[in-house]
Design a protein that fits this description.
The chain is of the alpha+beta class. About 20% of the residues lie in helices and about 45% in strands. A 12-stranded mixed sheet has the order 1-8-9-10-11-12-2-3-4-5-6-7, with helices on one face. Helix 2 packs antiparallel against helix 4. The protein is globular. The relative contact order is 0.22.
Amino acid sequence: MATMQMMSAAGRRALGALALAGALVVTGCSSGPSADSIGETTADAIRDAGTVQFTMTSGEETFEGAAVYEEGDLSELRVETTTPGEERSEWVVDGEYWRAPGTARPERSGSVDPEEFVAAWDWAQVQEDMAAAATSIEAVEAREIDGLETHGFELVSEERTETWWVDDDGRLREYEFEFADGQSGGGTLFGYGDDVRIFEP
């Protein structure tokens, strides 16, 4: 049950890396980021920035948080989760997992593997894995987000379809997903490179 303290099955499915086979069919766009390297491009943008903040909605769960990367690896993480009737905060700092249900005092917990928790929220790796597992990636309609024109990409796998909106710098700004069973969600990434500091609670 330890993994349930991190997020529900729906949340894990929304972020979990895929291991799917199949030929990749790519339709590129004429300018901006390229469809055939969109996973690597968006992942590099996060790692190069060093920090990113995020929101996600999946079913009845909402998530928001921040991630800090050092030398390309996710090193510090904060996630706040809200579900009907429950709120919790979780952190990984200095390789240790902390949690605080609701307004309770944060406590170090051995119930969750810090590396597993970090892997579930490693946005750079998740984007690389999703693109690698996609059976098709196609350019779709652009979208203006916070005054920026972004390029749209639809990534289709056997498990789900995701649509990403990526700016000219290769930064994923907004995304939507829908699983084969009809469950859907989405969210935003923002604050690339902001001075984010995640301390031991």
